Amino acid sequence: EALQTVVGSGKSQYNGTVPINTTLSGSTYQMKDATRGVGGTFGGMAITNANHAPESNPTPGTIYTNSTNTWGDGLQYVSGGSTTSANGQTAAVNALWGLMNTYDTMKNTLGWQSLDGNNTATYIAVHVDNNYDNAFFDPNCKCMYIGDGGSSFNNLGSIDVIGHEMGHGVIDATSNLTYSGESGGLNESGADIAGEMTEAYARAGGTGSVIPATGNDWVMGQEISKSGQPLRWMYKPSKDGSSPNAWSSTLKNLNVHYSSGPNNRMFYFLSQGSNASSGSDYYSSYLTKQPLAMTGVGNDKAYRIWFKAVTTKFTSSTNYADARTKMIASAEELYGVGSKEATAVKRAYAAINVGT
Ligand code: ASN
Ligand code: ZN
Q1: How far apart are CA 101 and CA 53, in angstroms?
Q2: Which residues act catalytically here (predicted)?
Q3: Which residues have C-beta within 8 Å of that of residue 341, sequence separation ≥ 6?
Q4: What are phi and psi of 166, to 5 degrees?
Q5: Which of 23, 194, 269, 318 can bridge 322 by disulfide, Cβ–Cβ 3.0-4.6 Å?
Q6: Which residue ranges of the chain lie beneath pLDDT 50?
Q7: How far, in Å, is the centroid of ligand 2 from the Cα of 69?
Q8: Is the beta carbon of 172 within 6 A of some atom in ligand 1?
């Protein structure tokens, strides 16, 4: 049977009605985008229904199919309901929209295709476990699992969370930063950076070769939160009550979702600058040169510098000091020795107590 790529309509939970690439096989529509990524387990970027397979032993289940090319109802999945009904399909719409946007962000701005850079297709399985308040990249399948949410979150398929998990996939395929100690914090931060840059690109319409200077919210998981509080604050990580704002010798002992904080703040400063006049959340007292401020280089350059470093220079054991050295090298290669971009990298790391 000939397969044909067609554009369907999905009711997403966080982004309204969105156009999604699906595949027509005979008279059945499959939730598979064969224009982004080739090969892989399903022959294209696929969204599957894990149908409550346990998080401890996850299985993807099968690709979502439908008799029409209209998917989902935009509403939160009701626990105990049907994972195949329009209600259940919404999780799949969220996942595919996040995947399409993450893929396009990396391909259109950085020229990086899929998770491995070789355009190998991956998949996202939704409805993993029950009332599951998490989402994760699985290094075994090089795929992702997304929960429906429980006490803390609604469905975890917001653009920044999907971008985060795909960010883990890129790191897994490249530097493979060990997921503990300082390298684990850098791995987590790299995933948050991918999530926020995807958010900036998607919110501006998802086209063009440049990440917009503004538009992302610099917090992770705002949309999925039931409390109204995000999961993490990149511009001031300590707002979560657990993450430090700056590097110290004990940082390596923290959970990776907290030791990520200083590098997240570094990236915020690198992009947006540290500005004392904007209030205490937006400057670093470690920047002792007047006026406790540095100039940012914008999202696009900041992401190019980070992405080059994390995919081609970092190793599995890179720590914060090594990251600084390699980020400077990355900025110098991209923008020149002595460039304002290289200087901004030094200032951004100085702002989190790494180097001067
Ligand atoms: N949501 C978590 C993360 O991606 C799950 C995990 O893999 N630790 O960081
Ligand atoms: Zn993560």
Answers
A1: 26
A2: 165, 257
A3: 297, 301, 305, 331, 334, 335
A4: -70, -30
A5: 318
A6: none
A7: 32
A8: no
Closest CA to 110 of 353, 341, 337, 334: 334
Do 71 and 92 touch, CB atoms closer than 8 A? yes
Mean pLDDT score of the chain: 97
Asked which of 130, 155, 173 is the last residue of a domain, the reply is: 173
Distance 165 CA to ligand 2 centre (A): 6
Do 355 and 324 form a contact (C-beta atoms < 8 A)? yes
**Pairing state of beta strands 143-146 and 28-30?**
unpaired
Residue 68 is predicted with a pLDDT of 98
Q: What interface predicted TM-score (ipTM) does this complex get?
A: 0.95
* Catalytic-labelled residue, pool 127, 164, 165, 182: 165
**How many domains does the structure of the chain reveal?**
2
**What CA–CA distance (Å, rounded) separates 226 from 223?**
8
Catalytic position from the list 127, 164, 168, 257: 257
| Closest CA relative to residue 311, chosen from 168, 184, 195, 179 | 168
Boundary residue ending a domain (126, 157, 173): 173
Q: Is 165 an active-site residue?
A: yes
Helix axes 159-173, 181-203, angle to 10 degrees: 130
Helix (H, G, I), strand (E, B) or coil at 10: strand
Together in a domain, 74 and 203:
no
CA distances from 231 to 92, 203, 224, 238 (A): 22, 20, 9, 11
CATH for 167: 3.10.170.10
| Among 262, 281, 271, residue whose Cα is nearest residue 302 | 271
CA of 257 to the centre of ligand 2 (A): 7
Could you confirm whether 182 is annotated as catalytic?
A: no
165 lines ligand 1 (CB under 6 A): yes
Q: Provide the pLDDT for residue 292.
A: 67
Please state, in angstroms and rounded to a whole number, the distance separating the CA atoms of residues 12 and 91.
8
What is the C-alpha to C-alpha distance for residues 40 and 49, in angstroms, rounded to an integer? 17
Q: Which token pair is 324?
A: 């600084």
